[in-house]
Design goal:
Helix content is 40%, strand content 25%. The protein has eight helices and ten strands. A hairpin with a 3-residue loop joins strand 7 and strand 8. Helix 2 runs parallel beside helix 3.
Length: 252
């Protein structure tokens, strides 16, 4: 059975550009344009109403800065994937925005990038978490169930559960805010992200093997290929990447 097309919101103040994007994307059966917006305010309203998987965003909007719209989209529709379509050099913007950037005029490249993002969006899941110790166990069970759905072997899934436990614990203890666990499945890696809106930063700590609340960021570093902290609007993302396959932690 063919999978449903990825849903797209097109945001641009130029009606001719919106029309062109719509014409081109509607020729691709794996994509479905479900809404358009001409400014930042209507873009945010349309995103919350329609919950698209992908937003094509022009940065030169008449009412709000494109970067402000991008930030608010990530806050209010956290699972949305954003592709920036702008006249500014993609090389200059991509590292700063954290989203793929396509130069205006290269419509074929836009289609290719949106299709790539659409494929990736089918392998992104998330859950909201409260500021309670119970959230650690809920997040761990969610991570294990997701790994099973994605066909990740049991040993690797156990590694993922350890890392998720620590990242969620740090959000509860240090950020003191609600958080969101997000899991991304890539071709070669699993990326685990915990998004929070608190000021506190995670702190490496030691814990016993039986500790319900994680085993310390030093252990996260041992399990993960890489981990770090990235700003995200009014908060931050604490993330870790693990190999998708291969020997589990501690294997001979």
């Amino acid at each position: 059975m063919a999978s449903a097309p990825a849903t797209v919101l097109v945001v641009d103040d130029d009606p001719d550009v919106r029309k062109l994007i719509g014409i081109v994307l509607r020729q691709e059966p794996r994509l479905e344009v479900i809404a358009e917006a001409e400014d930042g305010g209507s873009a945010l309203a349309a995103a919350e109403l329609h919950r698209p998987q992908i937003v094509i965003l022009d940065l030169g909007l008449p009412d709000l800065s494109g970067q402000d719209v991008l930030r608010q989209l990530r806050e209010h529709v956290p699972d949305v994937r954003i592709v920036v379509f702008t006249a500014t050099s993609p090389t200059e913007l991509s590292p700063m925005l954290g989203s793929p950037v396509v130069a205006k005029g290269d419509i074929q490249r836009l289609v290719e990038v949106v299709l790539d993002v659409a494929t990736d969006s089918r392998t992104v899941v998330s859950m909201e978490l409260d500021i309670t110790p119970r959230s650690v166990g809920l997040a761990r069970r969610f991570a294990l169930a997701t790994c099973a759905e994605w066909g990740i072997d049991a040993d690797r899934a156990d590694d993922v559960a350890v890392v998720v436990s620590e990242l969620v614990t740090n959000a509860i203890v240090h950020a003191e805010s609600r958080s969101m666990l997000r899991m991304r499945l890539g071709p070669a890696s699993l990326r685990l992200e915990v998004v929070d809106h608190g000021p506190g930063a995670p702190d490496p700590q030691h814990a016993s093997n039986d500790d319900e609340h994680g085993r310390g960021l030093l252990i996260v570093a041992a399990y993960a290929d890489a981990w770090g902290i990235s700003p995200d609007g009014n908060g931050k993302i604490v993330w870790a990447e693990l190999p998708r396959a291969g020997a589990a932690h501690g294997a001979a």
